[in-house]
Amino acid sequence: MQGSVLTALTRASQFAALLTFLLPTGAAQAASITDFMVMTVCTDAAGALQTAMAPIDPGCRSRRKLLPGEPAPYRLTTFSAANDVCANRQGVVVRHNMPVVVNGVTRIVSYDDHIPRSGCRLSGEQLSYGASIQGTDGLFGFILGDDGPTGQINFESPPICRAFPASARRFSRGWVIGPVNLPSPGGSGFVAMPAVLGIGDPGVVLSRPCPQGGPLALTTWTMDRMIFTGGLTLDALVSDHFSRANLVGTGPGAAQQMERTYWTTEFGLTRWEKWARADWTGGGTPVPALGRAAWATPTCSPPHGMAMTGDQQPGALRTQGEWSQIMRDARTGQQFTWFLLDCRDYSNIDRTAQSAPPAVPARYLPWWKG
Q: How far apart are CA 34 and CA 170, in angstroms?
């Protein structure tokens, strides 16, 4: 992440001003964001987990959230491309969204694993691929950091870091997902926060001085009904996180990349998308060509459209030959086309019970440091 932030405001007043950009619309609050971050499980009359059953199944009579330390009674998996020879379109990426408590601090961990496919079924050793570490505070849900094949990254919030430099709270609003109190269906909102990408082990990052300044990053969100790839229709929090915001935090400004996540009360983090502006060059291939390739071999159903903010005015979603959308900035008159480049939809349910939740790797523990 590169760029600049407002310089006319003091640090304290800048942070306070950014909170005013939170503009939810809609009626009464519908739910807490924590309900949309953890997997829901089915239980019997005594409250015990029912294995080989998902909350969408007709036989699921009683539901609650997965508890810390409990084995997941099913797993979320991706879809292969639409032209796959297997009718079930079984993907090879497996996800669990589960709460983990360390020293009294709760985080939600989205574990990603790879399992080889034998024919049209998953078969073989489950190989760890990485994880996303999420949390909440009094105002927002957020992603603290990610672990993957290329290493660990942390989403730092410079203003919070200055107040809590040795605490994982410095990672608490560098990647906002949405408000803790979600809007009712059809409601939406947005916020811009200073954000800096911290590369490496979070424990090492915690030992470094706080980053100075930090560009604004925009998050928009919408509560809507979403048709997922396998045909499931679920209420979803659709969250768009842009790499930048304009100087007043009301639009994506110079941002050229955006990641969209879909969160459901049934499964937690249920779908992920990668979007890029037409003039982004980081993919090595022109973005329109990447967009057409993604549309030609889709692993997902059509995406949700981008939300409107104070200055962001989206056009209609194009769904033939590509998934793209024109975004116009009402302040400047500039407009750019954004393309969907990649997608993982985890709503392909595999009802294989897990023996026990994985142990939290030691390198993750700094994300729980109070």
A: 20
Query: Please, are residues 242 and 251 in contact by the beta-carbon 8 Å criterion?
Result: no
- Cβ proximity of 115 and 94 under 8 Å: yes
**Distance, CA of 74 to CA of 89 (rounded, Å):** 18
Computed on alpha carbons and rounded to an integer, the radius of gyration of the chain in Å comes to 20
* Whole-number Å distance between alpha carbons of 338 and 37: 27
pLDDT band per the 50, 70, 90 thresholds, residue 30: low
pTM above 0.90, yes or no: yes
**How far is it, in rounded angstroms, from Cα 338 to Cα 35?**
30
> In the structure encoding, which two tokens stand for residue 101, read together?
């408590």
- DSSP collapsed to 3 states, 79-133: ECCCCCCCCCCEEEEEEEEEEEEECCEEEEEEEEEECCEECCEECCCCEEEEEEE
pLDDT tens track for 266-298: 999 999 999 999 999 999 999 999 999 999 999
According to DSSP, the β-strands at 268-277 and 121-122 are: unpaired
CA dist 314 to 21, 307, 334, 338, Å? Answer: 18, 7, 12, 10
